[in-house]
Structure formats: structure tokens, C-alpha cells
């Protein structure tokens, strides 16, 4: 993994537990940029006896395993609910390890002299969002989950925005090596890895509904040659002008080729590739095409807030998302996106339709080792919701089915094109 955590048990009094120190290491990116930013807040919650607060901010960088590491604290501004913090400078590497889409969490606290600082609220963003500068989209609601759960009329605990931001250039431990059997991407000469099995199982069935058999295929979570730039939506075939692969076999070929050229790298961000497909889907909403995004992943979702917003936005488009989880990881976040029980929501908006289907591949592996059976079981369940999702979009837009083709040899309209 790109993140390694090593617990060291501490010795002490015999028979008593003295805890452990955990050492965490992550390969540093080669990003040398320095960011200078200044933030301010408005109408924060009152925490002090005299109706004011002494607010300060704590910035956290997200890790691949879903944890957060403190990377910056602002100074305390005394006796105000509308603080303006001093500008500060931070290496982009420290904020997000050079990955502009990595989640940055920011907590807002009220300072107390005895160190028991009161939690006001939190919000998440990314360096890419921050770098867009002052706008209505860069005003963040400070939310306190406990208050939100208790008070029906709770809106927020204030807002935070930034007054300026500037980025200037300043003149490994990596994901499993695909050449090693310990990697889920291992390219064995004897059998397919689980990524290839999932892709082949789902793709070979759904490709029959695609008229041109051209499939744009993207990877997410890698450093790209030649400069090691981190990307969460790069074409597997290496061609940004034309990411299409010919048939599922072409996708598999591009996948294996990319493993030889890129350096796998976390964290796992879903939003960029979902938004990439959504941009294509939003251009064709007349019912003539329907897009199916198949995502195969072995990690936690590192940008859950942005992913939820991407799913909510995509729910109004002719689009479905299939997520296949491979490997032994816990997939609680994926289950949350699969809106069978509770519809996905973001910033108070609920998804118009349930468009996500998630399955863990380990549930479909045949005990006898029969890969064909494993793939058949996976394909059956993973595609089960697509017909209803497609119909729900057509109904929501008032699009009627095309008339059945005439019995004679008269040419009819081409069939619906389902894009993968």
C-alpha cells in the first residue's frame, strides 16, 4: 500500500497495558508547490459565556485508509463569531501530498484555556476546490453532526470562506506491485486477477447492448509518466484525445498495458471519474443513449462528500453506476452509495433515482475455484438493477418506447445505444 502503519507496543509495568505508538509512512509526491491562503468565517456558534467564541481552524490531510492527519492549525481569534484568520503558507505536499483531488477536512473549534476546546463543526473540501478562488461555491457550511441529529431545524453552525489563495512553485512506498503475487492486480500467466474477472464478467454481457463496441476506459489512482502527475481519471490506453477501446478484450488489453506504465497510487477518489462520465451523459438526454459506468475498486472512498454530490447530480442523467469491490477490504462506504434502503443525499438534496449497484466480488467466488461460475454469478446480480434504472430515467423524462419494427423488411430506427 502507499500508506504503511506500524504499531509499536510500549513496555511498562508488568501486567499493565501501556498502549502503542503508531508510525505512519507515505511516499511523498514530487510536487513542490507552495499554497498561501486566508480564510474567514461568518456567524459561528456561540460557545463562550458572554455570547462569543474564540475560534480556530484545524486542517487534516486524508489518508488512503480513511484516517486523517493534522497538517495545519490557525491562530486563535478571540471574542468573535466572524473571525478573519491571518494568511498562512503550507506546502501542497503537506496539505494533500500533491493530489489536488484528495479530501481535506477542516474542523472549527472554540479555544478554551484548559485545553478542552469545544467543537463547533466541520466541513470537507479539496485543494482543487480551494484553488478556484472566491465564489459562491467556495462558501462552506460548518456542520456539527450531533446538532444535526438532534435538532430538526438545524441548518449549520456558521460558514467558512476564503478571501484569497495563491499557489506558486517552489524553485517508495507504493500500491502493490502488479508483478508480485501479493497484489490484487497481479498479472498471473495462469489465471485472471479479480479486476480482469469482474471486467470480463460484466462487460461481455452488457457490450451486446452497445452498437459500436467502443468503450472509453479510465483508471483512477496512479502516478502517470513521465513526470509522476497523480490522476484519478486517466485513459487506460494512454490517449487523452480518444480513450475508446475496441470491445471488452480491448479494455482488458489497455488495463494490462497501463499496469506496465503507471505507478499505482492512492488514495481512492471516485468523484473525478463519475463526473467525467456524467459530462458525456448530460449532452445526450433524449433517450437515444444510456451510460453505464463500471467501477472496480479495492479501497475505501477517500472523497465521500464529493462522491455523494457526484452521484446526486448524475441521478438526473441517463446513467447507472456499477461498483464491484475486490479484495478483503471493508466496503461500508460503497454500501452507503447503493441507495436500495436509504437514497443518497448531498447538501440537503436527494438523488432523483437509485443509480448505484454495489457488490463485493468475494461473495461470488466459487469455492471450487471455477472462474466461469464466479463470473456468471457476479454478472447476474450486478446487472439486475440496470433495466429498472434505465426505465426509471425514461419515465422521469416522459420518453416513450420506440414502436416495434414492422413485420416487413422496412428499415426501422436503430436500437438504444447503451454506452459503457
UniProtKB/TrEMBL annotation:
Q: Keyword check for Calcium, yes or no.
A: yes
Domain C2, chain residue ranges per copy: 17-140
Record's InterPro entries?
A: C2_dom, C2_domain_sf, C2B_Copine, Copine, Copine_C, VWF_A, vWFA_dom_sf
Map out region (Disordered) in residue numbers. Answer: 395-420
Q: Where is the composition biased (Pro residues)?
A: 402-414
List cellular component terms (GO): plasma membrane
- List the Gene3D superfamilies hit by this protein, alphabetically: C2 domain (2.60.40.150)
Q: Which PROSITE patterns does the UniProt entry name for this protein?
A: C2
For this protein, the record's Pfam families field holds:
C2 (PF00168), Copine (PF07002)
Q: Keywords in UniProt for this one?
A: Calcium, Metal-binding, Repeat
Domain of life assignment: Eukaryota
Q: Which GO terms describe its biological process?
A: cellular response to calcium ion
Q: Which GO terms describe its molecular function?
A: calcium-dependent phospholipid binding; metal ion binding
Q: Which family does it belong to?
A: Belongs to the copine family.
The name on file for this protein is C2 domain-containing protein
This protein's species is Pygocentrus nattereri
Give the encoding gene's name. CPNE9
Amino acid at each position: 500500500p502507499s500508506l504503511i502503519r506500524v504499531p509499536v507496543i510500549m513496555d511498562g509495568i508488568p501486567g499493565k497495558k501501556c498502549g502503542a505508538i503508531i508510525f505512519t509512512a507515505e511516499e511523498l509526491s514530487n510536487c513542490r508547490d507552495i499554497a498561501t491562503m486566508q480564510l474567514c468565517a461568518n456567524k459561528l456558534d456561540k460557545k463562550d459565556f458572554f455570547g462569543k467564541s474564540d475560534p480556530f481552524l484545524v486542517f487534516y490531510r486524508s489518508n488512503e485508509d480513511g484516517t486523517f492527519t493534522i497538517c495545519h492549525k490557525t491562530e486563535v481569534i478571540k471574542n468573535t463569531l466572524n473571525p478573519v484568520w491571518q494568511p498562512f503558507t503550507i506546502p501542497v505536499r503537506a496539505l494533500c501530498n500533491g493530489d489536488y483531488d484528495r479530501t481535506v477536512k477542516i474542523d472549527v473549534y472554540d479555544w478554551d484555556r484548559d485545553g478542552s476546546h469545544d467543537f463547533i463543526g466541520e466541513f470537507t473540501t479539496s485543494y482543487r476546490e480551494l484553488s478556484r478562488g472566491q465564489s459562491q461555491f467556495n462558501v462552506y457550511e460548518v456542520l456539527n453532526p450531533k446538532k444535526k441529529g438532534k435538532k430538526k431545524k438545524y441548518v449549520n453552525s456558521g460558514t467558512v470562506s476564503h478571501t484569497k489563495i495563491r499557489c506558486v512553485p517552489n524553485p517508495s512506498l507504493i500500491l502493490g506491485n502488479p508483478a508480485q503475487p501479493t497484489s490484487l492486480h497481479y498479472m498471473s500467466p495462469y489465471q485472471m486477477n479479480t479486476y480482469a474477472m469482474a471486467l470480463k464478467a460484466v462487460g461481455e454481457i452488457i457490450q451486446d447492448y452497445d452498437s459500436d463496441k467502443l468503450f472509453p476506459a479510465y483508471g483512477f489512482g496512479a502516478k502517470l509518466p513521465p513526470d509522476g502527475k497523480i490522476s484519478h481519471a486517466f485513459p487506460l490506453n494512454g490517449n487523452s484525445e480518444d480513450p475508446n477501446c475496441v470491445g471488452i478484450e480491448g479494455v482488458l488489453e489497455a488495463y494490462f498495458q497501463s499496469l506496465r506504465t503507471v505507478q499505482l497510487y492512492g488514495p481512492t477518489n471516485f468523484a473525478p471519474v463519475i463526473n467525467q462520465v456524467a459530462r458525456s451523459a448530460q449532452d445526450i438526454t433524449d433517450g437515444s443513449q444510456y451510460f453505464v459506468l463500471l467501477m472496480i475498486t479495492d479501497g475505501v472512498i477517500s472523497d465521500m462528500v464529493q462522491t455523494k454530490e457526484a452521484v446526486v447530480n448524475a441521478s438526473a442523467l441517463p446513467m447507472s453506476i456499477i461498483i464491484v469491490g475486490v479484495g478483503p477490504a471493508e466496503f461500508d462506504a460503497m454500501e452507503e452509495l447503493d441507495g436500495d434502503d436509504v437514497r443518497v443525499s448531498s447538501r440537503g438534496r436527494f438523488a432523483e433515482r437509485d443509480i448505484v449497484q454495489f457488490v463485493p466480488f468475494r461473495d461470488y467466488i466459487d469455492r471450487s475455484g471455477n472462474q466461469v461460475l464466479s463470473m456468471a454469478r457476479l454478472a447476474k446480480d450486478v446487472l439486475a438493477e440496470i433495466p429498472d434504472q434505465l426505465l426509471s430515467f425514461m419515465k422521469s423524462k416522459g420518453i416513450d418506447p420506440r414502436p416495434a419494427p414492422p413485420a416487413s423488411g422496412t428499415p426501422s430506427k436503430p436500437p438504444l445505444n447503451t454506452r459503457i
